[in-house]
Amino acid sequence: MRRTNWLAALLIAPLMLLILGSFLLPVGFALFTAVADREVAETLPRTRAALVAWDGQGLPPEAAFAAMAQELGQALEDRRIGDMAQRLNFERTGMRGLLLRTARAANRLSAPYATSMVTLDARWGAPETWLLVQRAGGPVTPLYLLRAMDLQRAAGGGIEAVAADEALYRMLFWRTLGISLVVTALCVILAYPVAYTIARLRAPWSSIALTLVLIPFWSSVLVRSTAWFVLLQREGPVNQAMMALGLTEVPVQIVGTRIAVVVALVHVLLPFAVLPMHSVMKRLDQTYLRAAASLGANGFQRFFRVWLPMSLPGVLAGGAMVFLLAVGMYTAPALVGGDRDQMVAWFIAYFMNREVNWGMAAALSAYLLAMTGAAIGLARVLTSGIATSGGRA
Amino acid sequence: MRRLLGKLAGLVLGVAAMASPAAARDLTVVAGGGALQDHMRRTLFSTFAGGPVVDTAYDYNVGPIRAMVQARNVTWDVVLVEAPDLIRGCEDGIFERIDYNVVNRAKFMPGGATTCGAGAIGWGVAVFYDEGRNPNGPASFQEFWDTTRFPGRRTLRRGARITLEAALMGDGVAPADVYTVLATPAGQARAFAALDRLRPNLVFWTGGQQPIELVNSGEVAYALGFVGRTANGIRAGARYNLRWSTLLYAYDSWAVVRGSANAAAAMRLIQHITEPGPVTELTKLWPINPATASVANDPEVRARNPLMMTNHQAGGLEINTEFWLEYGPDLEQRFAAWVNR
Q1: pLDDT confidence of residue A33
Q2: Which of A181, B141, B246, B267 sees the fewest Cβ atoms within 10 Å?
Q3: B252: closest CA among B316, B326, B319?
Q4: Is Cytoplasm given among the entry's keywords (chain A) (predicted)?
C-alpha cells in the first residue's frame, strides 16, 4: 500500500515540479515583489539600525545622521544608490535630489552631522524626511499595493486617497473590467450560434467548419490586431466602404476609440469561446431533443428548455476563458486603442520596461490576478449550480 | 521562506546558465534599429578591426538590460542608451565605467564623456507641418497653442517628458525658465492647464513614425515630431516646414553592460565607433548629430547636411535629464492620470 502511494507520488512528480517551477514560484515571487521593501535595508543598513530605536519625535540621534552621510557616500562610490533613491523618490518626489546631493557632498560633511547635513539641505532637519526613511526599512511595505488603488499613507499614520489629479488606477481597473465584460458578452453571443451550427453539422463539414474557426489561431495576436488597424484607419477599407455606401460624408475616426478595441478583442478571443461551447454541445445526447419532441415540445421549447440549459456549462467555460484572457490583454488595445482605452496590462509593461519600478508592476499584477481569481470562483459557483439543475432537467 | 525561495531561484537560474551556450559570444551592439542602424552597421560596426560585431535592435526599454545584469546572464555588450537611463544605470551599476585609457575623452563635445557613457548621437523634436496643406503654420509653441490663428488638430508625444516643456512654452514661459517653473507645483498646474486648453484639438503619438503619418494623412495639421525623421522626409521630397525655433534636444550615449564578458573589446569598439573617420562616413548616409566634436564642427559635414540638428541647436532647449530623473515618476503618473481622464 505504502509502496503504491510512493509510486503514485513519483509518477505525478514531474507535473508537480512543472506547476511549482512554472506557476507557483513565479507567481509567488511576483506577489512578494509587490510588498517587498529591501532597497533601504540593503543600501543603508547602519542608518536603518540607528533609526529602529528612534521614536519619531523630534530628530533622530546623531548616529543616524552620521550613518546616513557615510552610507550615502559609499553607495554612490559603489554605484548602488539608484534603486534606493528611486524607491524613496517614488514615495516622495524630491528625495532623489536630496539623497544624491548629500551623497556627492558626503566627504565634505563633518561631525556633528546633525548640523552639517541640515546646513547642506534643510530637509534633513525635518522629521518627515527621517520618518520616510524609517518606514522604508522593510522588510515589507504596503506602499505599492496602496498606490495601485490610488491610496497612500497619510503623514499622521492612517491611509488617505492620493490627490485627485494623480488618481488613475481604480478607474483603470473599472475600465479593464468593463471592456472585458463587454468583450465576453459579445464573444458568447457571437460564438453560441457558431458552436451550435458546427455541433449539428454532419461529419466532414463539422471538421471543416472547426478548422475555419481555428485558422485565425495560427496567426499571432499582433498580426491580427495590426490587421484591424489597417482595416479601421481613417483612409482604410471600412471607412471607404461606409463612404461609398453613403453612410458618412467624411471618414469616421475609428482607430483610437473604444469601439476599435472591442472589435479587435472580440476577433482575437472569439475562438476561445467557440471551442469550449462546441466541445460541450458535441457531447450532448440528441435523444433528449427527440424525447422532448415526442412529448410535444415545439422547436422553441426544445431549444430553450432542453438544449440551452444543457449547453450552459460550455457557455460558462467559454465566457470565463474569454474574460480571463481579455483582462490581461495588452497588444490589441495598445495598437488600436486611444489615450483613454489602455488597460491595466499596458501600465504593468510601462512600469516593468520604462520606469523599472517592479514593485508597482507587481502590485498591479496582484490585483489583476485577484480579479481573474474572482472570475474563476464566480464561474465555478455558477457551473456547479447549473450542473445540479441540469441533472434534474 | 525567503531564503528557500532565493535558493530555488538560484537553482533555476543555475540550470538555465548551464543550458545556455557558454562559448565565446560575438561582440554584440544594440541600438534603436531602423534605417539608421543599417547605416551604422555599414559605416561603424563592420569597419571595426577588433573582431566580428553583431548588432541587434531594442526599443530603448532598459528593463531587459537590468534583468540580464541581475541574472548575471549578459548577452549584450554595447548599448545605445538615452541620457536618463544612462545616469540611473550608472548609479545602479548596470553599466561599466568607460575606460578612458582606451576611449579618447578629448574627442567628445562638452558633457559628452561621462562616467558610464561615451557620447553617440543627438536627437530632437520640433514642430513641423505640411506646407502643401497649410501654407502658414506655428513658428513657436505659443503659436502652436494658438488655435484661433492656426486652427486644426495637433499632435504631441504621449508622456510628460517633452510635452510639459512644450505646454509651458506654449503658455509663454521662456525656454530658459522652463525647468525652474516646472519644478514648482504652480508651474506644473500651469502646464496641465495649458494642455487642458489644447485638448479638444490634441491627439497623442507614441511611436516616432506616427507624427509623420498623422501629418501626411491630414489627420493633424501640426505636429511635434523627431527632427531626424522630418528631415529625412524633406530630403525625400516632402514639403514639411520644420520649425527649428521649437527644438527640444538630447544626446544618446554608448554604454557597456556591466558584467559583459567582452568588456575590453566593447571599450575598443566604442573608441572606434566614435572616431571622426567612421562617424563622418555615417553623416554621408544619414544627417545624424554626432557627439564627436570634430565631426559636429566640420564645416564640410555641416554644409553637406543643412538639416543636421547640429546646425540649429543654438536656439533649442536641451532636455534636462536630472530634472526628469527627479520629477519624472510623479509627473508621468499625473500625465497618465490626466490623459486617461
Answers
A1: 92
A2: A181
A3: B319
A4: no
Q: Give A20's DSSP letter.
A: I
Q: Which of A96, A100, A104, A340 to mutate to test the interface with B (most CBs of B within 10 A)?
A: A96
Among the listed residues A338, A376, A137, the one whose alpha carbon sits nearest the alpha carbon of residue A257:
A338
Taking the C-alpha atoms of residue B204 and residue B210, their distance in angstroms, rounded to an integer, is: 9
Q: Which fold has domain B2-122+251-310?
A: D-Maltodextrin-Binding Protein; domain 2 (3.40.190)
Cβ contacts of A148 on chain B, cutoff 8 Å? none
Give CA–CA dist B54/B78, Å, rounded: 10
| Sign of the alpha-carbon dihedral angle for B265, B271, B277, B281 | positive
Could you give the count of Cα atoms lying within 13 Å of B88 in the half-sphere of its Cβ?
28
What is the residue whose three cell numbers read 489561431? A217
Which grid cell is B183?
519644478
> How many Å lie between the alpha carbon of A347 and the closest alpha carbon of chain B?
9
How many angstroms separate the Cα of B282 from the Cα of each of B152, B286, B310?
38, 6, 15
Cβ-Cβ contacts under 8 Å, A21 against chain B = 12
* pTM reported for the whole predicted model: 0.82
Q: Is B290 exposed, middle or buried (0-12, 13-18, 19+ CB in 10 A)?
A: buried
Q: What is the homologous superfamily of the domain B123-249+316-340 according to CATH?
A: Periplasmic binding protein-like II (3.40.190.10)
Q: Where in chain B is the domain with CATH 3.40.190.10?
A: 2-122+251-310, 123-249+316-340
CA distance A99 to A118: 13
Distance CA A15, CA A154 (A): 46
Q: Grid coordinates in use for A291?
A: 424525447
Distance CA A257, CA B207 (A): 18
Closest residue on chain B to A92 (Cα)? B330
Q: Tell me A162's DSSP state.
A: P
Pick the residue from chain B with its C-alpha nearest to A148.
Answer: B333
Q: In angstroms, rounded to a whole number, what is the distance separating the alpha carbons of residues A92 and A230?
A: 43
Chain A environment of B333 (Cβ under 8 Å) = 166, 168
pLDDT at A106 over 60: yes
Contacts of A342 in chain B (CB under 8 A): 340
pLDDT tens sequence across B311-335: 998 889 999 998 998 888 889 889 9
- Name the band, by pLDDT with cuts 50, 70 and 90, for residue A147: very high
Measured in degrees and rounded to the nearest 5, phi and psi for residue A9 equal -60, -40
Amino acid at A204: P
Cell output for A280: 460541450
Alpha carbon distance A388, B293 (integer Å): 79
Sorted by where each starts, the structural domains of chain A and their CATH numbers stand as 1-35 (no CATH), 38-121 (no CATH), 169-392 (1.10.3720.10)
- The number of angstroms, rounded, from the C-alpha of A14 to the middle of its chain's C-alpha atoms is 29
Please state the separation of Cα B128 from the chain's center in Å: 19
- Taking CA atoms, B232 is separated from A229, B229, B291, in Å, by 25, 5, 20
Interchain pair B326, A342: CB under 8 A: no
- What nine digits make up the cell of A250? 467624411
